[in-house]
Amino acid sequence: MPSKTLSDSIPLPDRKRLPPLLRRAWYGLNQAFRQRVAHLEITPDQYSILRWLSEGDPRGLTQRALTDLMASDPNTITSTLSRMETAGLISRKPHELDGRAHRVRLQPDGANTLEKAMAIAIELQETVTAILPPARREKFFEELEAIADACAAVAERPSKKRS
User: Fold this and answer.
1) Is position 123 within any domain?
2) Do 93 and 60 contact (CB within 8 A), yes or no?
3) Which of 63, 71, 74, 146 has its CA 20 to 30 A from that of 139?
């Protein structure tokens, strides 16, 4: 059996590569959703925040928790929450135990917006996943979740420096 050479490991245009495929899928899905929820005057990130709040602690989530759930940075989340608070979608109140933290809560307008956006999200997901046979869809999500978990795990491990 011939030994593997450096040229064998160079990705060719017809070879499947995870990063560009994930990026292309995410970009297309994000843009399609952005267009479909524009009339609700929210962004995909704002939708995600509304959804995390609806599924989280009824007392509200801290900004830190939302930052972690969104895999974002604190400044981005703070500015997004400020816009959402101004729009009446959420409220921020001081945390009852941690004077440095705030609890973010879903407001009635946010819950109404979430309900409308969620119907759009579900329809979009069904449209996109319709290319898979129904019996494969659940397996696809399980495999995609495993890939996401593996990506998160390697991001948490320090990389070995090459000399």
Assistant:
1) yes
2) yes
3) 71
- What does the chain come to in residues? 163
Q: Is 50 exposed, middle or buried, given 0-12, 13-18 or 19+ CB atoms closer than 10 A?
A: buried
Q: Is residue 10 assigned to a domain? A: no
Averaged over successive runs of 10 residues, the pLDDT of the chain (163 residues) comes to: 57 75 94 97 96 93 91 92 97 82 93 98 96 94 94 82 58
Question: Quick one: 49 exposed, middle or buried, by C-beta within 10 A (0-12, 13-18, 19+)?
Answer: buried
Using CA atoms, how far apart are residues 123 and 117, in angstroms rounded to an integer?
Answer: 10
**Residue 30 token pair:** 């994000």
Instruction: Count structural domains, the chain.
Output: 1
**Would residue 4 count as lying in a domain?**
no
Sheet holding 90-94, edge to edge: 61-62, 102-106, 90-94
CATH label of the domain that carries residue 54: 1.10.10.10
Classify residue 96: in a domain, yes or no: yes
State how far Cα 44 lies from the chain centre: 9
Confidence at residue 131, expressed as pLDDT on a 0 to 100 scale: 96
74-86 helix and 44-55 helix, angle to the nearest 10 degrees: 90
On whether the CB atoms of residues 103 and 63 are closer than 8 A, the answer is no
pTM (2 d.p.): 0.81
